[in-house]
Amino acid sequence: MCRGPIGEQEGRTGRTVFQDRGTEMMYAAQDRPRIGWIGTGRMGFQLAARLLDAGHDVAVWNRTRAKAEPLAERGAAIVDVPAGLADRDVVFTMVSASADLEAVTTGPGGLLTSPDAAPGVLVDSSTVSAQMSALIRRAAARRGTDFLAAPVSGNPQVIAAGRLTVAVSGPRAVFDEAEPLLALLGRGVTYVGEDEVARLVKIAHNVFLGVLTQSLAEITVLAEKGGVSRAALLEFLNGSVLGSVYTRYKSPALVNLDFTPTFTMPLLRKDFDLGLSAARELEVPMPLAAATAQLVAGAIGAGHVEEDFAALILEQARNSGMTLEAENVPVDDGLSPHA
Description:
Helix content is 45%, strand content 13%. By secondary structure, it is an alpha/beta fold. A six-stranded parallel sheet has the order 5-4-3-6-7-8, with helices on both faces. A three-stranded mixed sheet has the order 9-10-11. The protein has a two-stranded antiparallel sheet with strand order 1-2. Mean pLDDT is 90; it is low at 1-30.
């Protein structure tokens, strides 16, 4: 995965390899690429831990160093600046927004600014705009670094259950080489095409996530106002053809009003903004998404900024003249080990 001039070079694994600009270096079975990880928040921490648990040499950087330090106890090295990972074979980035990705790659001390080294492959798993993704792809190419856009679907509990999924776009040959690493992150890795199309896949996914959750909130409040408990409605729904891994997973929050955050309302609003921007550019009307985006903005205005976005049900209840109370009953989320 290390880039170099045409001809032979000494790879970072210590082997002599042949590589030209159209052929990616392949590792022998006993070789393991050295991994860098940028961004150890709720998601990044768990994913970096999976790579450590699989026996990889992993070094990490996080803006708040204390959040990365528990990974050191599991064998990770911690660097002081993202550029400290420039000599790694593969570097993953998982940050919150487009500006953050730009900062950790091309900003001062960024991964792609080291004068002495550049990673072989950069895999970005952030949810960012296609425009920013393309900018970073070009910056990586100037350093001889291949770039894969690899946004993920899931949260820490989904990661723990081994059900994370990944959409990947970029050069097919690079994806084929990186796929074994990506497969360690979860159960499903899908190659969706060239360039930045994985960004659109993830944005479409998250827009649907918001619309679906708002719809769940609406029907649940409707049933409760008519005399049906939220637990009973969702048990019926989850047992029907409309039930899904997602509706089961969100049922405990909707029933017992536990909004410990997995994905916050401001992050959801960011993804709606990206989705509606793409819709305007591609001339695709999205009336349901636009209406839901307004409801998400209203929930943020009402103060729901730190809770999980399932708190949409609280605003739906308030708009319906109701105040919800936790039902305090056991609800299977479909992800727990016993499920």
